[in-house]
Amino acid sequence: MRLQLQGIGKRFGAERALHRVDLALAAGSVSVMVGGRGSGKSTLTAILAGILKPDAGRLLLDGRPFDPRTPHEARRAGVSVLLAGPALAPHLTAAENLALGMEPARCGWINRARRNELAQRALTALQSEDIPLDIPAELLSASQQRRVEIVRTLMGRPRMVVIDDPGPLAEVDLRNLFAILRARAREGTAVLLLTRSLEVARELGGHTLLLREGGIVASERADRLDRARALALLEGSEPGALCRRRAHRVGGRVLELRGVSTARLPGPVDLVLHQGEIFGVAGLPGSGRSALLRAIFGLDPLTSGILEGIPQRMGMVGDKGAEGGEGLLPCRSVAENLTLSRLAGFGILGWFSCEKRTMAALDWMEKLHIQGARPSQPVGELSCGNRRKVAVGRLLQSRARLLLLDEPVSGIDAASRERIYGWIAELVSEGRSIVVATPSFPELLALCDTVGVMRRGRMTEVRPARDWTLAEMIPATSGVLNRRFTPSL
Amino acid sequence: MNRRLLSVAIPFAVLVFACLLFSVLRTPEGEPVRAFFFSGGNFRYIVAQATVVAIGALGMTLVMATGGIDLSVGAVIALTGVIASTLLQGGGGPGAALLAAVGVGACIGAINGGLISLCRVAPFMITLGMAGAVGGIAQWLTQKQGAFPGTWIDRLLAPFPEEALIIVSPGIWIALLLTGVLAVVLRNSVFGCHLFAIGSNEDAARLCGVRVTLTRVLAYALAGALFGFAGVLHTGRVHGEGAAVSISGLAVDIIAAALLGGANLKGGTGNVFGAVFAALAITLLRNGSQQAGWPPYTQEILAGAILILAVSLSRYRRSSS
User: Fold this and answer.
1) Using CB atoms, which residue from A72, A89, A108 is nearest to B201?
2) Which of A201, B68, B152, B215 is 20 to 30 A (C-alpha) from A461?
3) CA–CA separation, B303 vs B249, rounded Å?
């Protein structure tokens, strides 16, 4: 069993999702592909599963072309793929989900006893006996649901297993999964795990591939991987674009979080934000940066703790991967999106002048260097970086008193980054407060007044920005100092 | 609370509420409604009427399990009814009339399912268009229609069966049998499991190798066949008199019954026993308001209110679990 990817490329409109990816997955090998958001992991998984067709390159399975048309076909060829998104039917039970598409049946009638027995055996083999078989999957915990999906992926001993993100597994389950995957590899299965976390790559071992902007930028054995270099490769942000901040006054408390946690944020998180303060959230992908911002904005209901002093007007540029995403209207025009929050300024009594709006939009497009786009073009057709600029641009014009920025400059060129950071600094001098999360530590240290470090869904340390050094931050986010997993989790 | 239990408990609660309501109300002339409402003859009449709604609700439950809806149900019942009576009038046998009606219903359903899969359009849009087209054809055929000779089709839903031994008319027995069979199909067959899987998470079903298009077309076709059968029963019951006209409220009742009985608009749930109970409850309310001497439009108001109640309850059931 040997799967080869040769020069795989995939485009979506103007955007390049994958570019010349070469990869060989042999029987008995364990590979971990690490990449941030938008690096092309999901596209690659979808191609392996037969959901997407590559535009360039080819796939070879044991030397013969591998061109599955459906995930089912890929699976019959021995390649079992688990996508990142939820893959269970929420109303069906765990047993029904495990058997879906391959029910033990005679003449169309399901043998329920046999189905339950098979499901129970599959769960037991993967140490997941605690999952009840007979209640709807939607009543299981997020971790249990993901485990059911993983068990389904491993059922029937496929020759190759591809898992896109282990997802919300608890520590114990994660380590359990790693043990199982290693055992499977020893029996000759090819294993490929895709994740955003370097820690997962380190823990599972095997071969590590770093994916950035659709291309593999490094390929090394896990134990030889230098963490600092890997982070620099993954984020690819040259810290040249440091902005000089104006001196500004930090006022009274605007917002206080005490012991906050949500479904996505294990917590508890404490945070205090003052008027005119820029609070930076540092952390590796998956550390809870985005979840914290979602919790403050009220997108995820709190499961515990309290949030005090939420201002009336809040603005947010969200996670581009999540549903609802960046807060853009994809099928409406750039001009509409840019001006949505201040339409009233272009006219009177609920009527506005299209001309004035277009002029304002053009003005902002120039300021933000949104190139290669017309004001009348739907935002959904824009490239990733340009969409981000539109989202940030709209927020910069709003009258919100508290701005939440989740990776506001990801995918944006260095010159525009600096300009955007300049505007952010200007906003706080008007007395607004900002919480910003970005993967680039140098940028955070240069921009923010206070920087808090997040790790595994907790705020582990908060200090004024001037008291942090870059050298301290990398170990703080990844927890290298006390690296071993805490077994209590 | 267990979803399956709730599916039967809610329609039962509506049923009890209706009974209580009409046992205390009085007609405008001052007579208690219960005097006639609770008579055996009236109950037989209600059950016969409810059977048409119940069979329609069985089909609707199948479609709703996949996350769809069939708004053409009323039109299909009208058309198949007219086709059956036209055939009888032209000298065709009752068996042929029944087969033709069921076949036409299944074909319309298959076309619905096929178009929904092919065009990837919201089911309510396709079936709304189909409702218009099919309803028009039914009206066109009705113009040529007259009385037809009596056959066993008329007796399928007669309040008093000819053979007193079987207690209720054969149509009701068939409906009960269909309910039982469909319950087993939904619970124990690969087809039934795949119906719920499609409605619950279509992508997941496709990923697992479920033949989504085929299953969906089969679901709509089966539902269409059931609507065709309901059309024949209805025509037989009213003996072809204004068959196309008297179905006006039927679609609302059928959709409300399926929803009240545990289905929801997003798919993934549905319970045939709940649907049958709900059909009975809704018919009871309609009949009761007639006995109470309320003007005919109150029936429509009631039916609309129940539909809205059913939809909001299905939303609530979803969020509470």
Assistant:
1) A89
2) A201
3) 8
Distance CA B245, CA B233 (A): 15
DSSP assignment, residue A107? T
Q: If you average pLDDT over residues A443-472, what whole number do you get?
A: 82
Of the partner residues B189, B194, B200, the one whose CB lies closest to the CB of residue A109: B189
Q: In what order do the strands lie in the sheet with A64-65?
A: A15-26, A2-12, A56-61, A64-65
Please tell me if residue A135 touches chain B, with a CB cutoff of 8 Å.
no
Torsion region of B119: left, alpha or beta (phi above 0 gives left; psi -120 to 50 gives alpha): alpha
Radius of gyration of chain B (CA): 19
Cis peptide before A268 (omega within 30 of 0): yes
Two tokens, residue A395: 């927020």
Distance between CA atoms of residues A404 and A310, nearest Å: 12
Partners of A152 on chain B (C-beta within 8 Å) are 208
Average pLDDT of A297-308? 84
Q: How far is residue B260's CA from residue A2's CA, in Å, rounded to a whole number?
A: 54
Q: Distance between CA B12 and CA B17 in Å, rounded?
A: 8
Complex-level ipTM beyond the 0.85 threshold: no
Q: Does B125 touch chain A (CB under 8 A)?
A: no
- Smallest CA–CA distance, residue A104 to chain B, in Å, is 9
Residues A371-398 pLDDT 10s: 777 888 888 777 777 888 888 888 888 7
The verdict on B210 touching A (C-beta cutoff 8 Å) is yes
- Closest chain B residue by Cα to residue A95: B193
Q: Report the chain A residue with the minimal C-alpha distance to residue B270.
A: A91
Q: How far is A96 from chain B (nearest CA, A)?
A: 8
Candidates A52, A69, A79, A92: best to mutate against B (most CBs of B within 10 A) is A92
**In the block, residue with structure tokens 């009888």:** B88
The backbone torsions φ and ψ at residue A169, rounded to the nearest 5 degrees and listed phi first, read: -85, 145
Q: Any chain A CB within 8 A of the CB of B189? A: yes
Search chain B and give the residue with CA nearest A103: B190
Residue B166 clears pLDDT 80, i.e. is over it = no
| Distance from C-alpha of A324 to C-alpha of A326, rounded to nearest angstrom | 6
Beta strand A79-82 with A64-65 is unpaired
* Mean pLDDT across A324-342: 77
Overall size of chain B counted in residues: 321
Instruction: Give the model confidence (pLDDT) of A223-276 as tens digits.
Output: 787 777 777 777 655 444 444 454 566 778 888 888 888 888 887 888 888 888
Nearest to B204 among A72, A89, A136 (CB): A89
How close is the nearest chain A Cα to the Cα of B12, in Å? 23
Which sign does the torsion angle of CA A114, A116, A119, A120 carry? negative
pLDDT for B317 equals 67
The answer to whether residue A136 neighbours chain B at the CB level (below 8 Å) is yes
**In terms of C-beta density within 10 A (0-12 exposed, 13-18 middle, 19 or more buried), how is residue A372 classed?**
exposed
